[in-house]
Design brief:
Strand content: 35-45%
CATH class: Mainly Beta
Shape: globular
Largest sheet: 8 strands, antiparallel, barrel
Oligomer: single chain
Radius of gyration: 13 Å
CATH topology: Lipocalin
CATH architecture: Beta Barrel
Number of domains: 1
């Protein structure tokens, strides 16, 4: 179990930690249902190959460039979304940049963030 937690922490660090400080996308769009976020998303900026697949029910699996994995859930209430995994929690925002959907994950403490672009 300890190895699994360590792997999840590594993936989360890549997904949510390695991309802080990037230029932000356009204005946030309301997220009425997590179903609207379903699909495959890939990290943008930097050389990271991190990716996440969100299911219509909000559950997700993430993979870092090294192959480490994590799982969690995105929930939406009153147009706002949040995420929770075994190792972190925080907010999720949806925006558009250059006509492409972008998700931004920010940890609750505000120290880490990641931007991902919809690919499917």
């Amino acid at each position: 179990m300890r190895g699994t937690s360590a792997s999840a922490a590594v993936v989360l660090a890549v997904l949510v930690g390695g991309l802080a400080g990037l230029v932000s996308a356009g204005p946030d769009k309301p997220i009425a249902h997590v179903k609207s976020l379903a699909g495959e998303w890939r990290a943008v900026g930097g050389a990271s190959a991190a990716a996440i697949r969100i299911q219509p029910d909000g559950t997700y699996e993430g993979t870092s460039a090294s192959g480490a994995k994590t799982t969690g859930r995105v929930t939406a209430t009153a147009g706002k979304a949040s995420f929770k995994s075994a190792t972190a929690a925080g907010s999720v925002t949806l925006s558009q940049e250059g006509g492409k959907d972008m998700l931004t994950f920010v940890t609750a403490d505000g120290r880490s963030s990641a931007r991902l672009q919809r690919v499917k």
